[in-house]
Structure formats: structure tokens, C-alpha cells
Amino acid sequence: MLTSITEGILCCLTGKAASLVLPLESSEPSDGFEFVEVKPGRVLRVRHIVPERQPIETEKQVAGTEKADDDCEDSPEDSRNDSDSGSSVHCKRKITVYRNGQLVIENLGDVLHSEILQCQDGDLEPCSTVEVELADYKEIASSPDPNPVPPPVPPPPGEHKPAPPPRRRRRKPKRTVVIDSKRVISSCKGTHSDVALFFVHGVGGSLDIWSSQLDFFSRLGYEVIAPDLAGHGASTAPQIAAAYTFYALAEDLRAIFKRYARKRNILIGHSYGVSFCTFLAHEYPDLVHKVVMINGGGPTALEPSLCSIFQLPSCVLHCLSPCLAWSFLKAGFARQGAKEKQLLKQGNAFNVSPFVLRAMMSGQYWPEGDEVYHAELTVPILLVHGMCDKFVPMDEDQRMAEILLFAFLKVIEEGSHMVMMECPDTVNTLLHEFFLWEPDMSRKDSSKTDTEKTVAVSDTLHTLKINKVMDK
User: Fold this and answer.
1) Name one GO cellular component term (predicted).
2) Of the residues 193, 271, 353, 416, which is catalytic?
3) Is-catalytic flag, 271?
4) Is 417 a catalytic residue?
5) Has 450 been annotated as catalytic?
6) Which of 48, 232, 374, 417 is the catalytic position?
7) Cα–Cα distance for residue pair 349/206, rounded to 1 Å
8) Which residue out of 110, 194, 228, 389 is catalytically annotated?
9) Is pLDDT above 80 for 87?
10) Which domains does the chain have, with CATH numbers?
């Protein structure tokens, strides 16, 4: 504590940040670690593990653009793995935003059921996880109002006709988005050479927080890629705040994605890393096959808080670093024992300079990432939430599940914000089941018939209306 205070005073006097995060001297690949220069002078450490069955070939990697499928040459094994298998799903929905801030979503395509998330032996998963399944919401297309005003009753003969009520102005939508596409969803096995897994950490973390997942899936034969964000882990730490905005970090990850992407890519993000996975899934819908969001929060646009403690000067944050580390341990883990402290140390979590931490928190500005942006995603998404998470409330992930087209929410009762470190076996099992999952579209016709019967009997339609605060 005294050392931190002394260094903080020196930081204030000299005007220089202490405890800078610097890259390793060697840029040679070692034990799966590589150093990639995404921009001149901007180097990220990346852990890239390729199974022995598959040599690294540049021409087999996808360029990450709309013409990637034409430019990429695949082996017969790759074509057999993803072209001739999988289920075709009709993704269709209408998203309407009204001037009063009301968001109306109409799901008009196929509905995916969540019975697929079971353990490998066929039994239901342990009771430590709770499953929330979404229903299919529809709305009458001709009117956004579920309670229309009945026509007026004509007066009896001989009575004066009352003055007609004022005509209600028909609400005009401020914005309408229609999604209508086909998506092939297939099982992604470790033996498939066209599958790559990308792991993205959040603020204060590093690729080391994914150690259990990287080891587990690489042993199963998956190709795994996990970068350190700028200023984190062993990546370079530029001493300029603009280097840590959302857009700057997103462009870094775009470069990493384009370098290592295959035909079918699965993105796994944690906390702030979920926003970058959402960005990549929105930018490259044909290359992103599935997404996993771990304690990522609700589908709201990012905006930094002006009253946050992270707005204090870097030297003050450096003095408070022991308190911040203890607070992160208390809020990020369900238990605060020696095991959790060791996990925090091994994962190199919350081990960033005060300048980087302040710049990261101040740079979380992403106005495009609102509800409509998330509602436009057609990729299947698994949401994993730790019940004891004090950073991300449960209702935020539930709201995310309501907005997304194909989403399955899993709650781990004994987990917190760092659930992938606290409960690695449970998280690895959930992720693996989701990777192997392929929708059974044979139930499509029977489900449609049952839905039509239900609607005919009740003569009601469910309307999903989500009120949000928007700029008018």
C-alpha cells in the first residue's frame, strides 16, 4: 500500500504513468504465442494454437471481406465439413422504431428451440444451471397498437348525433428495418478444419483468463485464437487516450479476425469483449457462425459515465490500485478465498496501468450498438450469466435475450463475473454443447401447425413491445 502511494506521488510530480505494460522482447512464436503488428507501432500478443492435424496455410485463411469465399481456396475436407451439412434456417423479422421511443419487433421466420443444450451423455445438465427459453413473439402487421379503439355505436333514431371524436393521428414509424435471409447452422466439431474459435477478454483482463478454455478446446482439436487488447497482457501500451477508444480497439480485433478467420468462426466474448464480438458478427455475418456472450450486459449503446471513479487522474488511480484490485476481487468472484486470489494472479486480470484503465473506461463510446443493432443479428447466440455477478445484473442479460433473434440464456448459480475462471468445467461443457449443436428443423412444420391452432382458439397474438429512451 505504501509503495503504491509513493509511486503515485512520484507519478503526480513527474507527470509520467507508472507500471506500464510493455511487450516481450522477442516476437518469435513461442508456445503458441505470436506478436501481430495491427498498425505501425501497435503490436498485440496473440495465443494461436493450431492442432497438429492441420498445417497453417495462408491461402486457406479467410480475408474477412464479402469476397472472402471467392478468394479463399479450401480443401475437400473443408467443403465437406460445412457445405454439405447443417440446417437451413429462415431468418426474418421486422424491426420498427416509433417516434415516441417504442421498439416493436415482429418475428416472422423460423423459431429455434433450446432443447439442444444438454450434456454429452444425453442427460440434462446439473441443477446448478437454470435455463430461460424465449417465446416467439408476433404482432399484427397492420397496426402497432394491440388494443384498437372499437368503432362508435350509432345513436338511436330521433336523437341528436353527437359530435364525432377527434381523429387519432396514425403513428408513423421513425425507422423500419426488415431482415429476410437464410442461414445455415451446423455442428462445429474439433475435427473440422474450417472452424476457428476467437476468445476476447474485457477491461483489465488478458488472454490468460481463458487458459482453461484454450487448453480444453485445443485438446479437442479446435483451432483457438486469443489476443491481448492494447495495453493489456503483453501487448503494447500506447500513451495516448485515443488508442483505447471502442473504435480503435475494434479495428485491432478486425485485423486479428481477418488474419486468422476460417469459413466458420465462433466468437466468445467476456464483459466488454462481448461488444467487440457483436461488432464483428454484425460486420461479417457470413463468416461468424456462432457467438457466445459471457456476462456481457444489455443491448444498449455504450457511453462512458462522467461520474465514475475512473475519471480521476491516473496518479490518483495508481494510489487507489490496491483498493480497486480488492474491489474487483470482491465483485468479480462469488468467493474471495486464496483460490480466487491465485486465479486472479494467474489470469493476469486487473493488472493494467492506471492510464490504460482510465482510457479504457473513458473510451467506451459506441452509440451504434443499441437495441436495433443487436436485433439485426441473425447468428445463434449463447448467453452465459453468473448468478452472483455484481457488475452485470441478471435483467440485463434477460433483456439481451429478448432482443436477439436466436438466443439461449444459461445461468450458472455458483458463478460470478469471472465465471469462466470460477467454474471452468461447467462453462467448457456449455460452450462445447453449443458448438456441437445443430437445429432440428424437422419440427418446423409441426410447430407451425400447433401455433396456428393455438392462435385460432385464443384469437390473440402476442406483441413484443420494448420501451426505451431514444433521442426524438
Assistant:
1) mitochondrion
2) 271
3) yes
4) yes
5) no
6) 417
7) 6
8) 389
9) yes
10) 183-436 (3.40.50.1820)
